[in-house]
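Database export, one record per block. Field names are fixed; values are copied verbatim from the stored entry.
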Amino acid sequence: AVKIKNGPMVMQTNYNLTVNEMVNKQMKVSPQTDGAAYVYAAYVDQATSTVNTDGLNVRSTPDSSSASNIVAQLNKGAKVKQLGKEGNWIRINLGWRNASAAEVQKYVDPANIAEGTQSYFQFLKLSEAANLNPAEVNSKILAGKGILAGKGQAFITAAKTYHINEIYLISHALLETGNGSSILANGTMYNGKKVYNMYGIGAYDSNPNYLGAKYAYEQQWFTPEAAIIGGAKFIGNSYINNATYKQDTIYKMRWSATATHQYATDIGWASKQVTRMYSLYNLLDDYTLYYDIPVYNK
């Protein structure tokens, strides 16, 4: 079988900043990471995982030649979660912590993201339909996915109507519905009408099924197809086709040139989000790729 891939069609967005200027902007809004950190082994009792000095610097890299990689400090008696040892350093897990400038640059700089890799999909232009074949979507992606099975045409209609990439919509729906198995996806009663919600819109944690059903009722999502197509409009208006922000790639959602209206504080969020999308594309033979690559000043 030969994969029929049109493109990729490549365009660019100039951020009108240098990479360093972008990193400096991001550092002002406290970017976070769950990545490993390092402490000098001599200052930790490795048998008990206990710090034996005050003011122990925690660094994002095993290097004490500069202060730029210091991300936290620990005092005597603090416990650390050891992940391993690298030379004279212990690799530890702090959970979520402040990211260093070097760590931010690793994710911000497009030069670090190789074409053809999974991470490169964060540049996928989400405001462009992928021109998928509904029969192929149904047989290769949605088969066995509960209420979503056979709904390939609805996702394609939604994508073309609201200018959103179909795979992004499908990925979002699979995640939010537990592969088509959730209560909201399969229909729940509200004011005497059965309603559907495929993207978890309005389903806040305080009472997700009730609030998600209420929102679906207000939007008149009385069929699975209506929920798929109508929900796409909401998704598009928030980021992808927002007139003010125009964040139509996963990269742009995470890394705004103004460091505002960003979807997450996790520096690895964009890379993590593309995993499912990349795997779905690999199931298909017929699609068009559109990329929008960020460009920074030298």
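Remark 1: The mean pLDDT is 95.
Remark 2: The chain has two domains: 4-18+106-297, 36-94.
End of record.
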